[in-house]
Amino acid sequence: MNLPQLKQVLTDPDEFITNSQLKTLALEVLELIPMPGIEGSPLDSGDIMEVVLRAAVGTTSVNGVTTNTDETPNREPVMDWLHTLDKEPMLDAVNDILATMAMAVLDRSRSRTVCIDFMDNPFHGHPADEDEFRRMQARDGTTKCHRYCTAFVLAQGKPLTLAVEPVAGDDSAADAVERVLARVELYSFELDQILMDRAAYVGEVIGVLRATAPPVFPVKTGKDSLRKKLSATASYMTEETICEGKEHEQTFPLAVNVTYQNGDRGKSGLKQTGYAAYGLEDRTPRQVARIYNNRSRIEKSYEKFREARALTTTPSTTIRLFYVGVGFLLEQLWLVVQWAVLARPRRGGRALPVEFTFSDAFLHGIERVLDDELGWKTKHRTNGEGLPPGYEHGLG
Asked: Which three-class secondary structure string do you get for the chain?
């Protein structure tokens, strides 16, 4: 992936970086996503990507952008262009761009701990194919969602996104994890550990993870034998077997970490947590828990990603996936620019700037430039009359 303007900024930055430069960098990234477009159309992909970028940074819809601007095409031709996106080439491009930006700030000689996770985006509407969505606990007024399997690496104090894969309704967790890890294995660094949540506690998924690197994940407490082991009053290391006597049987080192909840979140008493601790057999349960807890930072990444997700009611799964990719790409660009260009060099690592926030500084800065360039409407015509005669407005 060729990103000449980003390369220039990262290798030879000026004294200041402007909102206009941030917008230029964002468009350079997005315009690498292939979009066939409409033959003979007066528009080009740059026109479409500007509308998409404005929708993303403002967490609004394409319709919201085209309705409130003077210098953009109508919604219909924009959506016609977006419907020409081809899912697989688009997804490959998104992952390739994520990789290019991640490797710009990663030391290639170091091994890395990778975090795998499943992310749910609530879905409202009536899809053409019932196998397209997954079920989740009720949120935002729906139990339907589009699910994505993601991979992160923790570096420079931030979680960089390595890969994103959609998980269709009939997709197994093991297949989705395998696809994501296949993308991660293309990176030039070695994997020394994989961290995952309780979704990993499936024999088939454990097998997929172990084929790449030793996994660490918390266990579920359904089995009687496991509940007995987790009833301990002191931390210890042991073993446990899942899917015993079945095709995907796995025996794993179990770290039982016992802590005391001294009023934390209104709770008290002992708390026992079990972790499958592949590759950490020589560590204490507390050390295993500390290693796993690094994974909690990816929740912050999801919060940021959602601040750059364009809204849509389209039934097209490809366009929805594209908007998800745009959100992750914008967050990755912010992290890279923040660390490489704005963080202050110091002994022990760079000091990240607190003022260069994702929403208020990065996204809002791009938004202001696009508002000027796209002719965002700042006044709206009234009827010149106000309330009809006889209405009691009650305003004094």
From this structure: CCCHHHHHHHHCCCCCCCHHHHHHHHHHHHCCCCCCCCCCCCCCHHHHHHHHHHHHHCCCEHHHHHHCECCCCCHHHHHHHHCCCCHHHHHHHHHHHHHHHHHHCCCCCCCEEEEEEEEEEECCCCCCCCCCCEEEEEECCEEEEEEEEEEEEEECCEEEEEEEEEECCCCCHHHHHHHHHHHHCCCCCCEEEEEECHHHCCHHHHHHHHCCCCEEEECCCCCHHHHHHCCCCCCEEEEEEECCCCCCCEEEEEEEEEEEEECHHHCEEEEEEEEEECCCCCCCHHHHHHHHHHHHHHHHHHHHHHCCCCECCCCCHHHHHHHHHHHHHHHHHHHHHHHHHHCECCCCCCECCCCCCHHHHHHHHHHHHHHHHHCECCCCCCCCCCCCCCCCCCCC
Mean pLDDT score, 213-224: 90
Question: Can you give the residue range of the structural domain that contains 35?
Answer: 4-372
Question: Across the chain, what does the average pLDDT equal?
Answer: 90
> Per the structure, how many domains does the chain have?
1
User: What mean pLDDT do residues 307-317 have?
Assistant: 88
Residue 388 domain-assigned (yes or no): no
pLDDT in tens, 338-362: 999 999 888 877 888 889 999 999 9
Q: Is residue 393 part of a domain?
A: no
Distance set, CA 314 to CA 62, 73, 75, 126, 233 (Å): 11, 18, 12, 10, 53
281 within some domain: yes
Position 298 in a domain: yes
